[in-house]
Every structure is written in structure tokens, then in C-alpha cells.
Design goal:
The chain has 171 residues and is mainly β. The protein is built from three helices and eleven strands.
Length: 171
């Protein structure tokens, strides 16, 4: 069976960005910004869910009357996504169905500046300020966060490991 090469999708926040988005910043990098700060509060989480829904399903953790916020400032550098993210506490899920639909095959590496994130139902895997949290995007995920801020890298798997050789081919 031949392995199908998949493209590595990038997140696009253009349609919902309150700050606007320029495809190229002053360094010549593709860049995207998303921020709910200037949005009506009743629209903020809906717009966030629509934007982040490319990768994750999300639910609020706190009461629905608490203000929700989310911001992402992202750039694409040589096939690697780099972002700074801040958001309210929420649950994130990545189902087998979503994995099959988006075909994303890589790693999300988050360096926590504040707040925390952890696997739901387990206290073994919690990322706190100063920690790296590594997510294999080809595996299902169920995490919970509190209000947090982190720096992220989205790294295609093919950049970290060469593809397997074809059967019968020897080096």
C-alpha cells in the first residue's frame, strides 16, 4: 500500500479577525491575526469556535456569562507555523473524525507562559508556565485549559522524520 502524501493545512483567521489580517507582514512572512477583544461578547466564542474549528472542537469551561477572550498572532516560516495565543479556559477535542477530515500530520508544540493545560480525566499530563506541551495532531485529543497564554510551533511530521522507504527498495 502506497502512503499518500498530505498537504499541511494552515489556519486562516482572515474572515473573523477584528484586527484585520495582512497576508504578508513587514518581514515578508505570511501572517494572520485573530482577536475577540473588539467583538461583541455574544459573538466572540462563536467566531473563535469557527476559526479554531479547523483543528479542534472547543467548549467553554466557565459560566456562559463570563467574558470570553481569544487572540492569535501567527506566521508561517518555511512550512512551520509560529503563533502566540491567549484565551479563556476551555475544553479542546480532536476526534478521529476531525483527524481524518483535515489530514493534518504533524506536531503542535506549545510553550506555556501562563495558565495551564492538561489531559481531561488525568492529572499526570499538565502543562504549566515554563513547560512544553507536545501534541501529536494525528492522535485524538481531549484537554482542558484555564485562562492561558502560550507560544506555539506547528511542525509537519515530514520535517522531523523522513518518509518510509517504498517496499523492496534498499539503500
Amino acid at each position: 500500500m502506497q502512503r499518500k502524501e498530505r498537504s499541511f493545512p494552515t489556519m486562516s483567521f482572515d474572515a473573523t479577525s477584528s484586527l484585520g489580517s495582512s497576508p504578508i507582514d513587514h518581514f515578508g512572512l505570511p501572517r494572520s491575526r485573530f482577536d475577540t477583544t473588539a467583538m461583541r461578547q455574544q459573538d466572540a466564542h462563536l467566531m473563535w469556535r469557527e476559526s479554531i474549528g479547523v483543528l479542534f472542537d472547543t467548549r467553554l469551561r466557565g459560566p456562559s456569562d463570563e467574558p470570553f477572550f481569544a487572540s492569535v498572532d501567527a506566521a508561517l516560516i518555511g512550512g512551520v507555523g509560529v503563533a502566540r495565543t491567549r484565551s479563556s479556559g476551555q475544553d479542546f477535542d480532536r476526534s478521529r473524525y476531525k483527524i481524518a477530515r483535515d489530514g493534518m500530520d504533524g506536531y503542535l508544540v506549545q510553550f506555556y507562559l501562563s495558565g495551564q493545560s492538561g489531559t481531561r480525566g488525568s492529572s499526570d499530563s499538565i502543562a504549566r508556565p515554563g513547560d512544553l506541551y507536545v501534541i501529536d495532531m494525528a492522535q485524538p485529543l481531549a484537554t482542558s485549559t484555564i485562562d492561558h497564554e502560550h507560544l506555539s510551533l506547528v511542525i509537519p511530521r515530514q520535517m522531523l522524520a523522513p518518509p518510509p522507504e517504498a517496499p523492496g527498495r534498499q539503500s
